[in-house]
Structures are given as structure tokens and as C-alpha cells.
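Protein modeling request. Please complete all fields; requests missing the sequence field cannot be processed.
Requester role: graduate student
Desired output: 3D structure, C-alpha cell encoding
Chains: 1
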Amino acid sequence: MVLRLATLPALALVLAGCLHAVPEVHLAQPTAVAVAYFADRNEVPSNLAVPEDVQVQVRNWLTSRGMTPQQVEFASDKRPRTTAQRLDAMAKLNVDAPLLVLVELKVTYFAEMDGRFKWTVYQKLTMARRNAIPDALSRDSSTPVFLMLAHEREAEALVEAADPIGQHVAKLADEFLAGQPDLLAPAATPAAASTTSRELPHSIYFVMLDRYANGDPSNDDSIDLKDPAAWHGGDLQGVIDHLDDIQSMGFDTVWISPVWSSRHDKFFGHGAFHGYWVEDFTQVERRFGDRRLLRQLSDALHRRHMKLLLDMVLNHVAFDAPLLKTHPEWFHHNGQIKDWNDPVQLVNNDVMGLPDLAQEREDVYQYLLQTSEHWIDDVKPDGFRLDAVKHISPAFWKRFNADIHKYAGAEFFLLGEDLDGDPAHLANTANEDGFDAMFDFPLYFAVKDVFCDGKPLGRLGAMLSLDRTYPHPERLVTLVDNHDLPRIATACHGDAKKIQAAIDFTLAVRGIPSVTYGTEVGLTGEHEPENRSDMKFVDGPLKAELASDLRASKSGAGAVTAYSPHRLEWQSGDRMVVVEDGRVSTERRAGVMPTSGVREVELNLAKAPVHGDEVTFVAGAGPELGAWRPESAPRLVNGQLELKLPTSSVYEFKFLVRHADGKIEWESRDDRFLFVPPGDGPLRVEATWNGD
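Delivered output (692 residues):
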């Protein structure tokens, strides 16, 4: 165990007084830098191995300045001894890197103090241009660390000093590069810098930790790669190791699956590798790493000007979590949900048997809030992805979201997951519960229907036309799949053109696109755990196209400009998204945004099967047509109905009859679609029951 005193990084910076406070700099274009490490015990050169923790910190800090680090090694019998010799040897290596960084470390033991063991890590850091070694810049610093155990020695001391070492390298780079104006990018204005942290995520990449990358095999603890329900060894270090890959695709935000302590053993054949069976909200799951590594991931992302979303599970705990014994009164004890249409059961009963927290209790609320605030303080994430929204009361979400914003700031991003295909329900949640954004599941289902299963384009148009019901449609988070849904490669039956079209459309329309790990390389699977298979780090046309789509500018909410059974046009800002014959294209088309308005629509229905006091209605997408609810649908009188509908909107609808006995009869045909274009005068629609 390693103990870190909170004041040590600051103390290290004080001791490094020769590191002057200079502005952060960035290179005009990516530039390779050769990095060499030398570490000694005490004053005796001894080829001490430099831990990966130190190398990762240095690599991340240099990358944040626009450099591409390339680590270089020397044979053990040919390792130069002095700084001058080492720089000279680096300059002669056959490495295409115009910049050099030399990291020289010495580790010394000081004394036992109050049961702890004090060590000091001395650093001499040097940077130079390869063709100008005499102009190299060197800086010295030292970092004291305290270890808890007597057997912990140089390696553990270096690990504990990794953060300050990386920061010192960054300061050195800033100071050195400030004197190399030909390499630098134009400085950002203060206004630009101040708004960056307040920007919404541009694009989100979801990582299921256990299935992404195994960066540290030492924490695997009985993995079984052949069992899709077992733990597979992915961890936080694996994510850190692949940040270059994630960023290169164009993502600016990483959302990781729950990182908290989880059940280790299977429960009736199901494993908890996904992280959603939390046993202790206050601890990081040891298979993933520790809180230090979680903070390291956060810092590494921030140095890249990227964001981190933590996945918070506030509805339930694992089947045998310690809280069940220490606080049995904190839980509902109503059994499993039996009626998924009952709003009371959705909130107060167990989801799939998972013990359901009673968030209406003040002590439970304070526990969840204070735990969340602790992780905000400790890890510095940029937001939360909030799980299982529909299974917690709106009253909780209103209070919790307001308290988190009050504590962490209005810019702290709160993303709600309400897996429901009803746009009216989602719009109500987005309007009422204080989330900054919601996953756009209604559009997801429409995308799957249209691109994978060949359903009419009107389904997309109808969903996009409902943007008028959301407070901020540009904040809806779009998706083509996730860890709870079939992979898009499976949903589209392996058809490469359909898969690409679904992804192209989702990344082109309004909103914040999210992509699940492995979508870019065609991972398959319909149900869990098959849809949560291991990541494959390969390149391919889908990955390249996804990266190209992400790099294209995104715009805010827009409107339908044209619709027919074979063509849909949607304008978002100055871009037109066109879907035609299964293909998706975008083009710049400034200045043609349709004007919003209302137009009178006359519906005339013939041959409806009504007799006596039986009544005909029209129900469909949108509040004007009752949001598909018969009890809210407008009534036709003598087969006629006049409506005032927003222009530039597509409506999906059907007629229905309420018979004398109260039974509802829907038309036995596919859904109808109506486009309401701008124009003068009423729009007349003639229809026949079950026909055109």
C-alpha cells in the first residue's frame, strides 16, 4: 500500500523553484520527440527500471503540448553515464525526432518518520533540439514521498512520484518551447480558453472497462476469456494506453462504465464485469485499478482537452452488497417488477432482482449525493452518465441534478439514460427533471427500423420533427447501439452499406453523437453478454469513415425541408442531410432554412367502419395527434377533422375507431405519413380506411 499526502505535489513544486511559471504552449503541428529514461539508486548508476506509471505521465503531458513521444532505449552495457553523454548518444540514434527529452531520476531513502518511510525522488530533466544540443535546457527538482511498508522501495517511490515528474516535464517543455517560436501554434485568447471548459461534449466514446484493453495484467484476478459472462481483464490503464486511438477518431469525451467496487462471483451464471452491480460506491474496483489511476485517467484526458464522464448507478446495488446488512431500511422490499407499464412498480420495485434503494429517504439521498460529490472532488470528472432514470422518481432527479449543479457548477454535464422509445415520455423527462441531455432512444429505434429493416423514411422524419417538443434538441445524445442493445452490425444483418448509412445519418443530424467501443471495428452481438465482447484494435474502412464523420462540423436543431417516400432532407444550421435510396449525404446549403409556422390541415376519411355512436379518431406522433395515445387523439366528425399543424414537419399516424363497447380498432395497414410544407391555404388530405 502506498500513502500519498495531499500536499506532496504542491511541496514538490515549491522545491522545484527553478521551474519558472510560464504559459502553457502548443506546437503548430504534431512533432516527434525522442524520450530517454535513466534511473539510479542513491548516487550509484544502477540501471533502475522506470515504472510504466512514470512513462505514461510523461507521455501524456508531452502529448498535451502537441508532441508525439517516441521512447528510446540503450543496451545495458552501452548506457552513457553523464547528461552530456546521454544527450549526445540520443542525438546519434537513428530516430526521426527533431526534439529530445532526457529524464534522469535518482531515488534515495531518507528515514522512518511516524511509522512511515520517507523517500526522495530527484529529477534532472533536459530538453533540446536534436541539431542544437549546446542550447539544451535543464531543470532540477525533487519530490518527497512517504511509503507505508518497509519492503516498498525505489520502484514504489517512483510510482508515487509519477504525477509530479510528469508535471515537471510539462513545465520544462513550456519553458523550452517558448524560446522556439518557429515550432509554436498561435496562442489561444483568454476568452477562447475560458469557454472551452464550458462547452458541451462534441462526441462521446463509451468504454466498457472490462472488455476494452488489459493494461495491467497484475490486477486480473481469475479472468476467463472464453466465457462471455466472466471477467476479461480490461482496466483503467488499458483506457489510458489507448487515448491516442480514441482521440485520433475525433472524440472529445470518454464515458467509462461504472468503476466502483463490484461483485466478483457470478450470480446464477451472470458476471458483474459490466460494473452495474455495485457493492461499494466509495471504492474503485480493484480489477480496474485504484482511485489514483482513475484520477490519472481524468488528468490525462484534461491535458488533451478532452472530458471524462463517470457512470453513476443510483437506483440499486449488487445482490449481496454490504449495505443490505448495514442499512436494510435503505431499501424497498416490494419484489421484482411484474408490470412494466405500472409507474409505481418501475420506481419502487426491483429491476431484475437488484435491491432497490429507497431514494425518498433523506439518509439515502444524502448518502448518494455526498458519495457523488466525493468523486467530483477526488477525480475531477466533467460529468455523470446517470443510469436507469425511469426507475427513480422525478422528484429525486430534480433535487439531485440541482444539487450537483450547485456543487460542481452549471457546466457539469448530467446525461440521463431513460431507455424508452416514446418521444413524448423522453421530452417530458428532458423538460422536467433537470438533466442537461438525454440519450435519444426514440431516434435510435427509428434509425434501426429504416436503415436495417427497410421501414419507410417517414419514420425518421417524424422523429426529427418532434424536436420542437424538447427544450434543447441539439443536446440529445444519438446512438446506433450500446451495451444494452444489439450491435449495429448485428441489427443491420451484417450488411456493410446499411451499417455505414445508419452511422452516417446518426453522426450527421443534430445532437451529440455517442459511439460504443468496438462499433468502429464491427463488433457483433444481439443480447448480453455477446453484445459486450472484447475490443479489437484493428483498422478498417468503417473506422476511417466514422472518424471522417466526427471531424465534420456539427450543427444545432433544424427542420425537414423535403420529404417523399424515397427522399428525406433535414437542414441543421448550414448543412443539409439527405437520405435517398438508402444512402446518406451532407452538403453545405446556407440560407435556405425553412421558416417555422402553422398551417391548417383538413383530413377527410372515407369508408370508416362506424355505426351509430361509434367514433373515428386519428392518432400519431406528436402532441397534436395525441402522441399515439387513443385517449388523447383528436376526433373526426362525420369523417372530417381540421387541425393546425407546424410546417416543415412529418407526421406518422393511423386512423382508429372506438366501438360502442369501448374496444379500439386500428387500421390494419402500415402507418401513414404526412409532410406539412410551408404554404398558404389549407392542406387537404383525402384518405380511405385501410387504403390510401
